[in-house]
Amino acid sequence: MSGNRFPKGFLWGGATAANQLEGAYREGGKGLNVPDVLPGGKIRHQLISDPHFDLEIKEEVYTYPNQEGIDFYHRYKGDIALFAEMGFKVYRMSIAWSRIFPNGDEETPNEEGLAFYDRVFDELHQYGIEPVVTISHYEMPLHLVKAYGGWRNRELIALFERYAKVVFTRYKSKVKYWITFNEINSGLVMPIYGLGFMVEKEEDKYQATFQAFHHQFVASALAVKACHEIIPGSKVGNMILYVPTYSYDANPENVLFALEEERLLNYFCGDVQVRGEYPSFIKRYFKEHHIQLDIEKGDLEIIREGTVDFIGFSYYMSRTEKKDKSSEQVSEGNIVGGVKNPFLARSDWGWEIDPIGLRISLNQLYDRYQKPLFIVENGFGAYDKVEKDGSIQDDYRIDYIRSHIQAMGEAIEDGVDLMGYTTWGCIDLVSNSTGEMSKRYGFIYVDKHDDGSGTLERKRKKSFFWYKDVIATNGEKL
């Protein structure tokens, strides 16, 4: 593949989230957030689907891997040096809301938390790495969940705006690229992470969820406006979990069902944040599910005026849909459901591998919005083995990322404006979906295990050196 496919200045890098790697959950004045009280292991997914699960720390029953993460809080200098060795142009990271406002509703921010990110940004700039910062990445302060009910409560709009303005003002000379909410549409499938509440009753799945979305849309738009005012020349994006949806076959019923599922998951949130208005298709959905949004005067104007500059998205898999799934094997590994696609291989965790789906996604998004796209998450979770000589031969990860980069190049030739690519979990961290360390994504191995043991030593995997060459040649050497 010719390196000319990737434009000069293409933003190569990696991505992480504060709650999955920082640790130091009670240091520097930080308050508790949702991941701090979520147990580790595959039981996590079962518990967060249980509306009666109590968000309390029960150390005698569970382990809590996010509390230590991989100790980036104390080891960030060494980790950033490794990112620089790979040649990162950008590093997508997040600020932990509860490190800046421990409860989320204080009047005054926590100086120790602000100073920590000053040090991280300074370290990145020392190596010429541009930070891409997500303001809210699945780490809502626990107090906002318990005392306010999460994003169901309109009061969070003002609290989020205050938080955003504080970080914009503090880091206006250090951060140019911002993202408001991580995978905002994931509230449809994992509301505890993005929206800050569990779905207790069937009706909450509709009324409470979409009211919470509305509050986030207003908050995001206010943050975009504030960022442009405080940091001239800044770029603010949204971020969606993007999953192209295929019909199981040519049966028109299945084609229509796939279309409806895709529009709701992939385009509802994007349409509001990019176009600045609710899409026409959602009106029927609201009517059929008896959803009546409480929209206050001025909300729609704020949303119209606070559209994003670029579209950030994660891509891990596609989804195959059939209206009647009774006779088909459900694709249990895929986070958003669907039926198994017989044409696709799967990861160790059942996630279907579909690089062509990334090319499809890029074309779909650019055709719809005509704004720059930024792949801010894409990666391969797998079991890694440390060989006797200390090496990690992760050719499967190289194969996965190579095929997806090739798909990106094809999409650029298709005419897509793609500004950058940050692989998910450039260093091993705690898996969000399962709370495991054994589900590894990184180019850098971290000696920590599901039972909490390990030295936290860092090791370069084979993929580390491969990705270094990819960046050095601007995608020419794959």
UniProtKB/TrEMBL annotation:
GO terms for molecular function: hydrolase activity, acting on glycosyl bonds. It is an enzyme of class 3 (hydrolase). PROSITE patterns: GLYCOSYL_HYDROL_F1_1, GLYCOSYL_HYDROL_F1_2. It comes from the Bacteria. Keywords: Glycosidase, Hydrolase. InterPro entries: GH, GH_1_N_CS, Glyco_hydro_1, Glyco_hydro_1_AS. Its EC number is 3.2.1.-. The active site is at E377 (nucleophile). PANTHER family: 6-PHOSPHO-BETA-GLUCOSIDASE ASCB-RELATED (PTHR10353:SF122), GLYCOSYL HYDROLASE (PTHR10353). NCBIfam families: PRK09593.1, PRK09852.1. Belongs to the glycosyl hydrolase 1 family. This is Glycoside hydrolase family 1 protein. It comes from Robertmurraya mangrovi. The lineage of its organism: Bacteria, Bacillati, Bacillota, Bacilli, Bacillales.
